[in-house]
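Q: Predict the assembly, please.
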Amino acid sequence: MNWKTFYALLSRDGHVARRNLLPMLLQNLLQPLLLTFVFGRVLTTGGMMKGSFKDVLLPGVMAISMVLSGVQGVAMPLITEFQFTREIEDRLLAPIANGWLAVEKIVAGMIQAMVAGLVVIPAAWLTMGSGVHMSFHQPVEFLVVALLVALFASAGGLALGCSVGQTQIGLMFSLVLAPMMMFGCAYYPWSLLAAFPVLQYAVLVNPLVYASEGLRGALAPQVPHIALWIVTAALAAIDLVLIVVGLQKFHKKAVS
Amino acid sequence: MGISIRIENLRKIYDSPPPSAARGAGFSFVSQRSAGPKEKKKKFEVVALDGISMEIRSGEIFGLLGPNGAGKSTTIGILTTRTEPSGGRAFIGEYDVWQEQVKAKRLIGVVPQRPNLDFALTAREILLFHGAYFGQGRKEREERAQKLLEQFKLTDRADHMVRGFSGGMMQRVSIARAMMHDPEVLFLDEPSAGLDPQTRLLLWEIIREYNGLGKTIVLTTHYMDEADALCQRIAIIDHGRIIAQGTPAELKSSIPGGYLLRLRFDRVPDELVAGLKELPGVTEARQKDAASLDLYADRGGPLIAGIVNAAQAAGAELHDVHIAEPSLENLFLHHTGRSLRD
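A: Predicted assembly structure:
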């Protein structure tokens, strides 16, 4: 393992991310924040929703923001870099085994997802105004869940980015990301799906469910949520699978 | 230290279309095989390299010459760890390029057929990060980047994003990047494709200069004059096989009667034709019209005196001589029956 090269690859991604910071933040945070404003502020202040909905929404919005920014932060550049121009070739020729470049992409995506998650908490809080009840009494649980969510987002981004072509990006959003967000228990607790028993168990294949429920359990334990140990175990298993799949797909893309 | 390259019975069969459209590596359908006639869907299988063996000596400029799709880019792809060989082995120095990729990657610099620059960066950043990937310290890489930017006449656009660069400029950045970590072996895949004549000469100059530092240089080309002018040794590849190998001079002299002398007289009497045929080294004398004649021979200049004498003996007068030296183009034609550009 060649740490100097690994660090240089990581600083290249950091450099590019810093250069695109504003558009990137807008791309990943504007939509969740607008949604927060409409559902968490307009509808609650107007009396269409209970004030306690804010506590349900905030962890969910955080989960969505982390997943979106992690997936996009890894998948989108990879799709471009593996395209026609093969921009990634330069880094594939760096003196480090190809797999480490994929690992570097995962680490870079995790950092982006963590930053997005940490930015969205105060931003969403401010957007929703008063009446948000967040708890920071479980910092370790919060950190573990957040890191697992970030890993899920960026390993998922790696797997997606190495399987999707440039022409299918729109399809990736409408077929993968949109249903994932709607059925990811981000806007409602999982227990609410009890009224739809089939759906309640079907959504369990959706990793975002564990992300939303886990962050809910860590940040707003007063809201009903899936037990943290289940969430942690599920996320860890999903992460492992995505890392293996992502690395395999990356290898296939990297070498002809 | 010079680094040599050894290739042993290298084979490459693509079972899916290679992503090398990006590298412009056209490949020819050398033999498309299916497992059996009854098989419903024909399996995609393209033999790009069909057992190539060769040795590139340390410190030489070696050219891989051949038409599009001959297997040149696949050879470079394998030697630069970017393509997995289906069979055989390739060594950069003592390292097996597939087994010891990282060690091999340290020794090589690669200029791809089409610029694959990192579009998210400026020209200078491309060089700086490339240096960083290879573990160069900040001061070292800044100095080296500046030097290369100057050498490649890129200083005025150094801090612009490369996205807006012209093809020639991108090519120069590509070459500068490949030389950034001072590799022992430099691979250039079709380096002068799409370059204007002036930039091409600059490129040749740079290649010769880099070779002068004792570096090994491997380039692919389908330009005869480039191979001739630049390379110390050449391998001619076609359909995934090496059909000839040697120095340009050796290769050219291997064609029987490689020289062509186009002669013009005031008239061509029969005894003149007979006299010319008897000159040493002449393989064929073909009369074109009443006043001109083509002579195929294994030598050029040394025949002139004999031609003049034969003309005098036959009572004719020599008006004009044009000697066409043996060319690689002729060699390729000789070996394959096709012109290189077909």
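Residues 148 and 280 of chain B are 54 Å apart (CA to CA). The interface with chain A takes residues 14, 18-23, 77, 80-84, 101-102, 105-106, 108, 110, 112, 114-121, 125-126, 129-130, 132-135, 177 of chain B (CB under 8 Å).
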